[in-house]
Amino acid sequence: MRFKKTQIIALANQKGGCGKTTSSIAIAAAFNQLGYSVAIVDIDPQCNATESFGILPNDLFSQGKLSILDGYIKKRSAIDIQVGFEPERFDNKLFVIPGNKQLGEVGGYLETEALQQIKFERAEIEVDDLRDEHRGRLRSCLDSLRGVHDVVIIDTPPNLGYLMTSALVASDWFIIPVFPSQYDLAGLEELTVTIGKIRKKYNPTLKLAGVLLGNFDKSTKLDSQIYKLLCQKFGEDAVFQTTISRGVRMRELTFTKQTVFEFEGASQQADQFLTLVNEMINRAVKGPESSKALPQIEKVVERVENSEVDMSQLPEFEEQRGVVNG
Ligand SMILES: Nc1ncnc2c1ncn2[C@@H]1O[C@H](COP(=O)(O)OP(=O)(O)O)[C@@H](O)[C@H]1O
Ligand SMILES: [Mg+2]
């Protein structure tokens, strides 16, 4: 342990294809490169993060090995679920808490369990308590990693359902990854408001680490405009200075089962993820005195809810509409 306390960070955006999995893995690997002990938790039923490390969820299951599903359903501790690698690969300092293809059914399963309690004539208010306990399942599961790893990264599924809620209840920090191509302003507003509610009800100390613009091509006007628009919408403090460049070979990582640091074709992005992690550490440790202060989440939520920034402020969208309208 190099941090005084374990920091749990969720990559959150209900949109698919905005860099959640890529960033989860690369951020975990970047912390590992810097000598920190890290675990990456895969709660997406698609299990892309798990598979990117060469771990096959169905094989684990048929071998009777545990996955995060056992954390949710059987209340197993993450420390009993984590899978390590040969020491040469990550120096025994990177672990995966594997996903499971059945994860999508967990929310419904637990809700049925709650509704059954009503049948047994339990007071409705107690059923509410049970639902709260369900939302805290991932948090309890990951508690076993506190004091063990410096950082725990959670890769989340592309919706705001039960699993995403459980991740935000469990986390100390969240990062919002955004791709210029997958940019969805209304979706980002909904996410911010949801996070405001989760903070109020379950996790008042949840903090925004920053909005991360990936798959970014600074030579295109549209991408630079989107970076500026994100700064306007969320506030400059809330958007990471570091962006991750678009690279055609980034997509190969899932196939070669390598992290960005093990793959020669993506050295630019590897450097950028290291810079990003240093930016995060710098801002978290130095707080308001760092070059860019940490965003105040209350202010960010308020700003996002009240801001009038919208897509039509992008000249290129106007131009495109102009063409359509003749
Ligand atoms: N910097 C990048 N440049 C080009 N492609 C990228 C970059 N980062 C991620 N990708 C690709 O974009 C796709 C979506 O990324 P992914 O991380 O899987 O998103 P999500 O987990 O949000 O669905 C993947 O095919 C991934 O390989
Ligand atoms: Mg993903």
Broad CATH class: Alpha Beta
The percent range for helix content is 40-55%
Q: β content, as a range?
A: 5-15%
Biggest β-sheet: strands ordered side by side in the sheet? 3-2-4-1-5-6
Shape: globular
Return the CATH topology: Rossmann fold
Category from helices, strands and their pairing: alpha/beta
CATH architecture: 3-Layer(aba) Sandwich
Radius of gyration: 20 Å
What count of helical segments does DSSP give?
A: 16
What name goes with the CATH superfamily?
P-loop containing nucleotide triphosphate hydrolases
Secondary-structure element string:
EHEHHHHHEHHHEHEHEHHHHH
Q: State the total count of DSSP E strands.
A: 6
Overview of the molecule:
With 326 residues, the protein is an alpha/beta fold. The chain has one domain (7-103, 139-324): Rossmann fold (3-Layer(aba) Sandwich). α1 (20-33) crosses α14 (267-286) and α11 (185-201) crosses α15. Residues 321-326 have low confidence and may be disordered. Strands 3-2-4-1-5-6 form a six-stranded parallel sheet, with helices on both faces. It has helices at residues 20-33, 48-52, 57-62, 68-73, 78-81, 87-90, 106-119, 124-135, 137-143, 162-170, 185-201, 221-234, 253-256, 267-286, 297-306, 315-324, and strands at 7-11, 38-42, 94-97, 151-155, 173-178, 207-213. Helix content is 48%, strand content 10%. Magnesium ion binds at residues 20-21, 44, 48.
